[in-house]
Amino acid sequence: MSRLARTVQTSIGAKGLMAVTGIALMGFVLAHMIGNLQIFSEPEKINAYAHFLQSLGPGLWIMRIGLLVIFVAHVWAAVKVSRASREARPIDYAFKKKDLVTSYAARTMLMSGVIVALFVAYHVMHFTLGWIDFAGSYGQMTTIPGVDHEVPDVYAMVIDGFRHPLTAITYVLANLVLALHLSHGAASLLQTLGFRNRENAATVKKFGIGFGVIVAIGNCSMPLAVLFGMIGGAS
Amino acid sequence: MKLDSKIPDGPIQEKWTNHRFNMKLVNPANKRKFRIIVVGSGLAGASAAATLGELGYNVDCFCFQDSPRRAHSIAAQGGINAAKNYPNDGDSVWRLFYDTVKGGDYRAREANVYRLAEISNNIIDHCVAQGVPFAREYGGLLDNRSFGGAQVSRTFYARGQTGQQLLIGAYQALARQIAKGTVTMHTRTELQDIVTVDGHARGIITRNLVTGELNRHAGDAVMLCTGGYGNVFYLSTNAMGSNVTAAVKAWKRGAGFANPCFTQIHPTCIPVSSEHQSKLTLMSESLRNDGRVWVPKKKGDTRKPLDIPEDERDYYLERRYPSFGNLVPRDVASRAAKERCDAGYGVGRTGLAVYLDFADSIKRLGEDTVRARYGNLFDMYAKITADNPYKVPMMIYPAVHYTMGGLWVDYELQTTVPGLFALGECNFSDHGANRLGASALMQGLADGYFVAPYTVGNYLAQHGSMNAEGKVTTEHPAFAEAENELRARVDRLMNIGGKQSVESFHKRLGKIMWDECGMARNKEGLTRALERIPALREEFWSDLRVPGSATGCNPELDKAGRVADFLEFGELMCRDALTREESCGGHFREESQSEEGEAKRDDENFAFASVWEHKGEGVEPALHKEDLTFEHVALTTRSYK
Amino acid sequence: MQLSLHVWRQSGPNDPGRMDQITATDISGDMSFLEMLDKVNEDLINEGKDPIAFDHDCREGICGTCSLMINGVAHGPDSGTTTCQLHMRSFRDGDAIYIEPFRSRAFPVIRDLMVDRSSFDRVIESGGYISVNTGNAQDGNALPIKKADADAAMDAAACIGCGACVASCPNGSAMLFVAAKITHLGQLPQGQPERSLRAKNMVAAMDAEGFGACSNHYECEAVCPKEIPADTIARMNRDLFKASLCE
Ligand SMILES: Cc1cc2nc3c(=O)[nH]c(=O)nc-3n(C[C@H](O)[C@H](O)[C@H](O)COP(=O)(O)OP(=O)(O)OC[C@H]3O[C@@H](n4cnc5c(N)ncnc54)[C@H](O)[C@@H]3O)c2cc1C
Ligand code: HEM
Ligand code: HEM
Ligand code: SF4
Ligand code: F3S
Ligand code: FES
User: Fold this and answer.
1) How far is the CA of C61 from the centre of ligand 1 (A)?
2) Which residues, 6 or more positions from A24, have their beta carbon under 8 angstroms from its beta carbon?
3) Atom 20, ligand 1: which residue's CA is nearest?
4) pLDDT tens-digit profile of B111-130?
């Protein structure tokens, strides 16, 4: 353990932590997205899925806490690394340093990360805690086949939520930012963890962008589909 | 001045082994009580400092660059020789010894050269162990190539960066000792004078190039590993900072200076393009393995090279030297190029260039093979000249490259000042009048890794003091005296208040040296130079302008000091060239040549090393002679016809 | 040609420093960038002004002494080229050229364009070597090395320690320099015994010197005059994780 602690104290170790937690977070984003995409089929599907998650009981809490720890670790490392890098050049160039090969995504990782963090906070308050609820559709109940008692109508909550244009736009923008973060992150982590080399460099780059695009399409499709009335019928 | 070369007796094969046994040793426990000053961190300096540190001595190492890794050894491209005979082509210690003595035109000391050849193999082993990435064959074993016209393949290389890799190896060994605390490194620090007490070298005075401070350093022995003095010509393949200061100061403190006029002019360099040129760039000699040298048959032919038909081209090396052709030794190739250009056949904007043509080899081997062999050199050439050597022939011209002359040292690499040693290019030892390709790296590392660490111990065991009371400290009046002289000199330089820059004086000195003491020398020119140099020195000390101040970082002041020393040294060089009325190796006296214009050596009267003794300011230096005897390599005339 | 130079002038470590405009006159395309500065300095001296201090030595692109940030690019516009090998034909008459020192907390300015890169030496001292004393070596061919490995080691060993990687890294990171050394030695059998120790110590030293971390921008690779590949950094990361987690 102390070994791990010592490792993450080094610049490379911190990067490694960021990469590993990044993978976990990517995994969550991907799984969460696939789960949510059930919104495109009939309401029962996603409600049943949500119910299944709820029914995990302690398991759910373990997942939640694990996720939170990973997230915090990722942010901690991000902040540590970013600070070290800022302090490494106290006097900047008078003639702005030319960027020869780096990408916009790479240069804005911290910013995009922070935006994602804010989004997640907002998002949890929206769908999980229901503190923010313009549509007033949080806590509606419904029934699903094979369950005798009522369960939260997640389908309605999401549809109503996204009918609200501002909310939908927020989601779209936030997910674009996340996609940007990942378009560099997903490739970057392979270099950080030492898997990138001269041969696969191009592929690694494509992988990053590809991952970003998938997340962008997947997550933005939902609010947009609702907004343009393609699912959930016209409001 | 007494010249005792201290050559051990016994058969030449056993001299070094016997001598190592006969030398006195320093008790391991006492080694740390000795402080050794190593000036220079090139191949010679870094290897010596690291090895002495490993042995347990206290070492102070100095260099003027911002890091020891930047010493000029880094620029060596071609390779390093060793008598391993891995290719099984008949090489041996004896053959390397023989070739080096002959290649040096019989002006080197046999015993030293034999030791060098003997040690050459240990160098390769040690460098491999350090992680020097020498070129290898698919079988995983070390690759060798033939270099500089040698008849055997004995040259080890690391791409076109052999010197860099060897120096990085030595630098890393040095870094290890610095971390251990046995070596203290002083970068951006320039030696200004050597301090002698009772005739023994006991310390140095340095100038901190960042703060401008003068500092005193006391030691039990001083080793000068400060490289060559090619920059006396202003334009050379040496680094901008390469200087003769340390050697000149040693000379003035009583060290004999041997064969100062022996300079090597390298045939394959990129020609001068404009008067703004600050230095010349070498193109590795290996190019001559596949390139053909030619000039137009017609005087002042201004056609483009490709427009000149085959039968109107004069492949003068192949014409004059059928058996060696384009691979004749450096001095021969350089003079031949000069001869053609002086006769008006030179090409290029200045008429001071000849073609090095790869068209035939590209036809024969294909462009890819040629690229594989010389790619980096072709790129470098293209970068500098903006010509594409794959399409048009390269233009080359000889340039000052190496200085065989240097501080006179005995078999133990000790100068005529006890306790003052000289290693690497800084000494005169092993190359006689002409150095063979890939032999300087070998010598620098032999001196630093394998010779000096023993011989300095022998000196310390006899003359070094282990106990504090016997030690000379920086409080000794000799230090104060030397420091005051230097402070006065710096003040003088700063306060001349003239109009001309240091650079302009250096350029003018270089011009004199190149014209009168360059590739070909004659009595008249040298006598002229002996009047012009002192005059220029006068002007320097009366009309120099050094901007800035003596405190803090002031590169112009650094340069001024170096040029001041070059101005004194240039005179000594010309004097040496004048007295040596023969042609040998890099030294070509027009009075001494055969009908076909080949160099004529005069073993009757000049089979000796000229050793110059400083007799005081404004007094003519005295010439002493170390007679050279050749028991193992019969004196013959070099012929490459 | 005539050029309008904007040069960083700083009389010493404590002087805040500033950008100065200097006009360079009759510059020829055959001049190297440093020869252009020589010319400017010659003129400044003749005008009784202080010349511009800059680091240089070999002027062949091998010693790594020259530096300079030229119009926002370390070693200037030509790729795979050091400042001393850069020629003025890469510029047009009337161009404005901004010349600044390499910027990094670990490279304090000494004067004008000269910086102190001794932090690099200290990183090497922390473990950038193979521990072998003179005289210990076995025969050079006792231990065959795959050509591919020897070549890869040479690729990395080509680093000249110029610091352009640091100067051009958005994070002021020295990863490429350190990775080059770790790769050079780690590729060779002789380098194996100390491989883990080396990675740990050199990374620790690098951090202690105040270099930034790497976020995989690859700017270093793009400006490196010796074109050291950035996958050496991946390799170094592997070595470090293995060393500090498993040993
Ligand atoms: C372009 C080029 C290519 C070459 N190629 C080859 C080759 O292929 N094979 C070969 O065998 N040889 C070659 N040589 C020759 C060889 O490189 C040198 O002779 C050899 O490296 C000299 O090493 P050194 O240690 O004696 O001196 P250097 O490497 O020049 O080191 C001199 C050291 O002394 C220090 N110093 C100098 N003056 C002072 C002072 N006043 N105060 C403090 N420190 C000082 C410097 O800082 C430096 O550290 C080449 C030379 C050149 C120029
Ligand atoms: C769902 C949320 C997130 C995911 C999936 C994610 C994923 C990733 C991944 C895979 C990397 C690449 C790691 C590497 O280069 O080795 C990364 C890097 C980074 N992340 Fe995140 N991240 C998320 C949230 C955040 C947040 C909230 C922040 C900031 C506060 C943040 C800041 C950063 C920074 C600064 C980097 C740059 C690392 C580097 O390359 O130096 N991330 N992220
Ligand atoms: C348009 C895209 C998204 C939709 C439709 C969506 C939908 C939902 C829903 C319905 C819930 C509540 C599940 C429940 O309470 O049963 C939820 C929870 C959550 N979502 Fe999203 N989400 C989206 C994007 C994201 C993104 C991009 C992230 C992270 C970067 C994220 C992180 C979370 C988290 C952390 C929770 C809380 C899980 C828990 O602990 O219960 N979501 N999401
Ligand atoms: S890695 Fe490249 S840029 Fe960095 S120091 Fe080495 S040579 Fe210079
Ligand atoms: S530019 Fe900097 S961020 Fe990493 S890849 Fe190079 S060190
Ligand atoms: S001066 Fe040596 S690399 Fe530029």
Assistant:
1) 16
2) A67, A70
3) B73
4) 999 999 999 999 999 999 99
